[in-house]
Structures are given as C-alpha cells and as structure tokens.
From TrEMBL:
InterPro entries membership: GH3 (IPR004993), GH3_C (IPR055378), GH3_M (IPR055377)
Biological source species: Pseudarcicella hirudinis
GO MF annotation: an example: acid-amino acid ligase activity
GH3 C-terminal domain ranges (all copies): 382-495
Protein name as annotated: GH3 auxin-responsive promoter
A GO term from the CC aspect: cytoplasm
Segments forming domain GH3 middle: 298-366
Taxonomy, superkingdom: Bacteria
Pfam families: GH3, GH3_C, GH3_M
Amino acid sequence: MTLLNETLIWLMKRRLPRIQSFMERPMDAQEQMFWSLIDDAKYTLWGKKYDYQSIFSIKQFQERVPISSYEDLYPYIERMMKGEENVLWHSEIQWFSKSSGTTNARSKYIPVSKESLEDCHFMGGKDMMTLLANNKPNTQVFEGKGLSIGGSLSSNSLNAKSFAGDVSAVVMKNLPIWAQLIRTPSLDVALMDVWEEKIQKMAEVTAQENVTSILGVPTWTLVLIEKVLEITGKSNILEVWENFEFFIHGAVAFQPYRELFTNKIFPSDSVSYLEIYNASEGFFGIQDDLTRQDELLLMLDYGIFYEFIPMDEIESENPKALTLDEVELGKNYAVVISTNAGLWRYKIGDTVRFTSRYPHRIKISGRTKHFINAFGEEVIIENAEQAITRACEVTGAKITDYTAAPEYMKGGENGCHEWIIEFSQLPDDEEVFRKVLDETIRENNSDYDAKRYNDMVLRMPKIQIVEQGTFYEWMRIRGKLGGQHKVPRLSNTREYIEEILSVVSGQRFISNSDKNVHA
C-alpha cells in the first residue's frame, strides 16, 4: 500500500466523528444550518424582501417565505447571471449549473456559490470517500485513479465573467490540485464539448490507466465501458482495470441495472457499489452502509436546510412543509431546500421516503412531475423500478433503458400503459416479462390494481422492445448526450414516447406485445 493511499484513508477517517454527530443529533445540525443561512442572507435583496432580520424561528420563516419553483426564482437568478450581486446570496456567483432536470428542452441555471462548492459539493465528495473507506477498511482505491464522466462548460451568455455548465463540470473545474491528481481523465478531455469525441478520447486515455473506481450514471458508464472494450479487444472490463474496487453511482435508480453490473460488467465479489444523491442544487445523500441497498444517509451539515411536503399536500396552494423531526417512516415526501447558494424553499422535484430515523436515511421514490396518473392509477417511478427489476429477475433479461406513458382510451378500447424498452439481453419469454411487470405494479399500487381489475379501466400494459442504441439516438437528436441527462422513466403525457417512436420509424420493432406491428 502506497503512502498516498494510507495518508488519504487516514485523513478521510478523521471525518467520521462529524458525520456520527449529525446522525445522532440531526435537528441540532439542521437548526445550525438554518440560522447560518438566515444570517448570511439577511442583507440580500431576497433577505430584505422577507425581512430575514426579524425572523426568530423556523415556523416564522415558513409562514413568511413562500415555497418556490424554478420559475418563481428565475427573475432573481437572471439578475445574478447578468452580474448583479447580493440578490439571493451574499457572495459573488461566478458559476451556474446548467440542468434540464430530465430531457426538457428548456435549461435551468442553478447558482453555485463558493460556499456551496466548498461546504456542499466538495464536502460530499470527501464524505463519499470517508464512508467508502469505513465500509471497506482495507481498500486500496487510492492506489489508482478515480474515473469520472464530466459535462462541459461555456461562458455565460449574459455575463462573460461567469460560466455555466453541468454540475459535474463545475465541480471538476474547481477541484483542488490533490483531487485532480487522483482522478482521470485530465480536464481537457473530461470537459470536451462534443460527446461522441469525448467518449472516444476518454476510452483511449482511461484504457491505459489503473482505474480503481468510477463515479457516474449507470447508462453513460455502460457506453464508456463498451468503448474501452472495443478499443482494447478485451471481453471483460476487469481484464483492463484489474484493481477496480468501486462503482459509485447516482442520478437514476440502480436496481434495474444491478444484475447487469454484478454479473457481466464487473463479475467479481471484490467490486462494491455505493450510491450517492447529488444534483445541480446540491449534494444530499450518501449510502453509508453497503448492506442497505438503495438507502441513503441524508447529509445534514452541507449548508442546506431541508423541508418535506407530504404528497397529499403537494397540489395545495399553500402546502404544509415538515421539518426533519416531523417526518414519518414509509411516507412519500416532496423535497424542499434552502441552500448556501440562495435557493429559498425551493422544490427540487424529487420525492423521497424515509427508511430510518436516527440516523435519517431516505430512499428516492420518484419525481413530482414524473408519474402516470391518466386514469387515477398514480403510478410513481418506484413502482416502475420495482416492476422492471422483478420482471428482469424472472425472465433473465437485462435492460439498457426504458420509458412509459399512457395510451388513452380509443375506439371503445380501454387505455393502458405503453412501455418502450431497450434490452442488452432479451427476456426468455416476453409474455412472462409483461405479466410479471403488470403483476408487480398491482401488488405495490392499490390504485393501479383497482383500475386493472377485470380490465375495467386499464388493460394489460403494452411493451415495445426496440433495437439497441434507440435511446442513445433519441438523446443525441435532442442534444442531451452526457452524464447529466437522464431518460424520463414515466410521463403523464405521450410527448416522449411519440418522439421515440419517430426515431424508430425507420427501424423494425423487435417486438410489440400488444399488437403485431412492424415499422
């Protein structure tokens, strides 16, 4: 073991007492974050508007400051992008994280302050390695390089003194020298603009490196690994990266990909998997226990104050938001944050469910705007992930990507859910796959089950299996290639599905479980 590896592990483990402190006293940490945020922002334009100087309790803050969407905050963010200071946050904002959330055409520009970089994004990266080392004390992960798939950066069109880009690119660009030394590829490659050229160059560079970990989205990681194998002629990526130890993943649910990664991509018990929850708005959670799949420790001292809206309140004009000490286990909540970059009571669009308290662990259950409820069935992403995972287990299938949307009632025929799925390994029996998918959603969602009863409202789902590369081509056409962009799993409209169907109009459907159509 090298001195660098030993030193970094020793430094990371010194961070554990701080993490254990907020695990045991969560509201102490959250109250400290709250008062720090209020104090730092009291002389900003926003702080003066809501008279932060006269706020003396969290309840007073909740009564005075409205819950905001991106559209609500955008007029203030636009002023910051033009160079105006002291608008939402007290320090100068030179970086903006560009995000579409999923694949929406309109981009969002999230302010990234020096405080959110240092105390949130960088802190999250360090704690990620701390918890990784705590789970695997004999790790030699720092003997090699950590591979990360970044986005790209460009000058802010409204102010040449600031920059905009994917949050991964913003973070990479600002990493300290010691962190740059233990990652690959170099910044000039990691921040390349043209995705196809970047993947090619990344593969060429990293194929020659001793890669011991990857931080990335499962879908885009698969694209890179396939390119590395193509270049090297190897049949297994562990033949290229013999000392590989950790795949650190986020952005999309990993469960549907787990079998593919554990049995085919990294077929070794020596490889571990750690999930993180980070976004343009901040770094929120880390899997602190590798035995607890899909459960993330909520990180409470990153300059973020959390609130949670019960799902039965989400459509209310003035929804009641709960603080951390008020949440209950097993219920779905929409996440609201106030941050050290000036996002105030901001709905990030994600829903979570608490799996434990003391410490507070969460499971990401979906998106507030990504669901199917065309017939009163209220299917959320968690239902879809459970069903896809179970259907793959039963039929031996492995997926690359999928999306689903309603097919509405027409011609006297009941509606259904239409699924477009791209497999890396086809199911043994497509009809069994469809039945297990349907049955699993029925088992986990009583509203869907009621609508499916005797096909009274919903008939069996339609599944269309498309050629490999279909989703990649769709994302390419939309200009959404790269690690920050994700395929929307569920939509309550047919916008995405119709676009994908237009992509495959020149292809032959591999299979259509509802009707025998060939394009």
